[in-house]
Amino acid sequence: MPPLRSNDTLKTILREYFQSFFADPAPKVAWCSSVGPSEILTAFGYKVFFPENHGALLGVSRQANKFMPVAHARGYSPDICSYLTSDIGAFLAGETPLTRAYGIPSIPPPDLIVYNTNQCHEVQDWFSFYARHFDVPCLGISSPSAVGPMGEPHVGAVAAQLETLIGDIEAVNHTRLDRDRLREVVGLSARCSELWGRFLRSAQAKPSPITFFDGCIQMAPAVMLRGEAVAVEYYELLNAEIDERVAAGVGAVEGESLRFYWDGMPVWGRLRFFSELFADHGVNVVASTYCNSWIFDLSAEAPIESMARAYTSLFINRSEAIKEDVLRKLVRDFSVDAVMYHDAKTCPHNSNCRFGMPQRMLAEHGIPFHVVHGDLNDLRCFSDEQTRTSVEAFVEQVEDNRH
Ligand code: SF4
Hints:
Elements: H1 7-20, E1 29-32, H2 38-43, E2 47-49, H3 51-60, H4 64-73, H5 82-93, H6 97-102, E3 112-116, H7 122-134, E4 138-141, H8 152-173, H9 179-201, H10 212-218, H11 220-224, H12 229-247, E5 258-263, H13 271-280, E6 283-288, H14 289-292, H15 303-312, H16 320-333, E7 338-344, H17 357-365, E8 369-374, H18 384-402
Parallel strand pairs: 1-2, 1-3, 3-4, 5-6, 5-7, 7-8
């Protein structure tokens, strides 16, 4: 399958995004957790940088294991988030893959740091390291966790914190938030989310024109530029190309015969390994919890309320019962034959196979599963050979059971 033509535009957008942090005059820079309230920061006029994206870059470029020991030596445990340890380790070592990729000297120093604990509490500790180092404010939203059915109390509590956050940033900035600008940014973010969701739903076609591994690359604008027009324009271009593939019946995996779902974090340093392993066996990973996490139901008419609802109703932040419902629906909608659960050693928050979910989904809904043991960044927790052998045996088993 030839690469997507849109990739060239994606590369240009990302280069311009990273280089813009070092423009003259220098922009105000805010750091934000990846499912944090970035729209508010954009509306205040900050350029927004996402440390988790930097963590993923360290993983993809297979540099994470070089830097993690530097953070371990500072007292950051090998058992905690390996985004955190690889990112802090790289910072302490004075290196970043952004220099080689985009020619920028370092990660952009922040004027303000903002997080939301909707995904985990580790972002708070992670960002606090930098707040101490740069001596800048570190402001946060404390979200409820393991949320069952969403109710007004959940939304109201988070909306009130968003208003407090706005007041705190106004105090730091000595400027009032332009509420019209916030509505505009949230509207762009909503449109970006719609288009991102449309891209992911294209995988419902048989054969699917995309894979989970395409999604891991294509998601960058949805994470980093979601309140900006450039992300909307990019996904319109990308979706037009995907529509062509669907109309021509072109599948991303030649001879697609099985369709899998990937639950949990990617193994960033092994995207190609998995992509080739699955494709060699006619398996397409057509949907994932991870890529779906950046589809937000936002509304320009109700920016604060819709942000509170969207950022609290993330999959990672829900009860096991809600997660099972979501998963079951996705398995049905994407005609999935089996679920691969990634048990990521340093991310228990986004590993959904530790409390019997796969077994319940098999017993109650007949959904076969396999558990991949690994990690998002720490490749010491991952064995190529064991994974290859166990995945191949599982694929064979799913095929046998179909006949
Ligand atoms: S959700 Fe997992 S990968 Fe993301 S910051 Fe938290 S521990 Fe790290």
